[in-house]
Specification:
- By secondary structure, the protein is of the alpha/beta class.
- It folds into three domains: about 180 residues, Rossmann fold (3-Layer(aba) Sandwich), CATH 3.40.50.410; about 100 residues, Immunoglobulin-like, CATH 2.60.40.3670; about 80 residues, no CATH class.
- It is built from eleven helices and 13 strands.
- The strands form three sheets. The chain has a six-stranded mixed sheet, with helices on both faces. A five-stranded antiparallel sheet has the order 9-10-7-12-13, with no helix packed on it. A two-stranded antiparallel ribbon has the order 8-11.
Length: about 375
């Protein structure tokens, strides 16, 4: 569990970029509710905070360069937001990267994040998914995170999920335009309670031992050290990180020791570190059979594995590989059947059956968002 906010430091300063799609498809209620959400964000900021506003269609418009939010600035930004009008195509990458540049010009000892909203496909500028994911990963390493908001049925849910996961932020699926303000409030509410920045979990892996990270969490291996990137941590937040550890054969009674460190920067920029270790002892088969089985833990881990398999299957289904998508999920269900709750198994079995016929856009996005939330294991 993450520590609560202290009385001395009620909230972190925010350095945000609102990156707003104003392409032609954003006409009517969509743009109106986006403007309402932006007004709410501005209303919650003060002189501790910086904000930039970028609007994009086939052209990228810097509505407001990164600036401190004084009362006079807020009034001017509200006026500019109200003047936004829908335009042409969708240069998602151009708008997003401009927003990140505005943040990076003056990083703060708080939360530095781009809030990227779109209702469509990237069809101008950089459109290659892998290139965009690479940018998200590199920006996160430089201290600029990205949260993504997909509205309606026409955006690429695979892209927005990956940008958020690799970018250290959150992904949101917004089914209806009227939900936009509430979802922005949810994201802003969490940002205002961040107590740990750029958190990571490091595991020292002994020679011959393999550690698999479940849930597609961003991670990297350097020599005998595994580092899992957790993003910013909100006050009171609980995170569950699931790994599978494979050890080489050894004699009963010997042990393998895994050492872990949770690290993050607090709101004053100080490095905080919490260390722990876990000893795994080899035992004879008879002893193993008598050992207790932690079924609740195994059930939660199984759900994360199934959600990961569902994410892979959804990528295949979107690419037109329906039978391979169905098979991927069915095989995962068989492997996880022992500990997975019956209602979870039934839900994924039904999804696998529908994949064979092809999913609707609504199905794809709902299933992708459900998979994402399960893999994040937040609470």
């Amino acid at each position: 569990a993450v520590p609560e906010l202290t009385e001395r430091r009620t909230r972190p300063p925010l350095n945000l970029a609102l990156v707003l799609d104003r392409s032609g498809s954003m006409h009517g209620d969509k743009l109106r509710f986006v403007q309402q959400a932006a007004r709410h964000v501005l209303g919650a900021l003060d002189e501790r905070d910086r904000v930039a506003i970028v609007a994009y269609d086939d052209q990228v418009t810097l509505v407001a360069a990164g600036t401190r939010v004084t009362d006079d600035v807020r009034r001017e930004l509200l006026r500019r937001i109200d003047e936004l009008r829908p335009g042409g195509m969708t240069d998602l990458a151009g708008g997003w990267l401009e927003g990140c540049r505005q943040i990076g010009d003056e990083l703060v000892e708080g939360v530095n994040r781009a809030l990227l909203l779109t209702d469509g496909l990237a069809n101008r500028g950089i459109t290659d998914v892998e290139e965009l994911i690479h940018h998200a990963r590199e920006l996160r390493r430089r201290g600029v995170a990205t949260s993504t908001f997909g509205v309606g049925l026409d955006f690429n849910e695979q892209l927005l999920t990956a940008l958020a996961e690799q970018g250290g932020g959150h992904f949101y699926y917004i089914e209806r335009p009227e939900q936009i303000p509430d979802v922005f409030r949810q994201e802003l509410g969490e940002l205002l309670t961040v107590v740990g920045r750029e958190a990571f979990l490091t595991i020292d892996v002994p020679r011959g031992v393999a550690v698999e990270v479940l849930g597609d969490l961003p991670h990297e291996r350097q020599g005998e050290q595994l580092r899992i990137f957790l993003g910013d941590l909100a006050a009171g937040e609980r995170r569950a990180i699931y790994t599978r550890v494979l050890t080489p054969p050894d004699a009963p009674g010997t042990s393998v020791v895994l050492r872990g460190e949770l690290g993050y920067a607090d709101l004053d920029g100080r490095a905080i570190s919490v260390e722990a270790q876990l000893a795994l002892t080899y035992a004879r088969e008879a002893e193993v059979l008598l050992a207790p089985i932690y079924k609740e833990l195994l059930a939660r881990a199984s759900e994360v594995e199934l959600a990961t398999a569902a994410a892979r299957a959804l990528r295949l289904e979107r690419a037109g590989q329906r039978e391979e998508a169905r098979s991927t999920l069915v095989q995962a269900l068989a492997a996880a059947a022992v500990y997975t709750p019956a209602q979870v198994t039934a839900s994924y079995s039904e999804l696998a059956g529908r994949m064979e016929q092809g999913l609707s856009e609504a199905d794809r996005k709902q299933a992708q968002f459900a998979s994402y939330k399960t893999r994040q294991s937040r609470g």
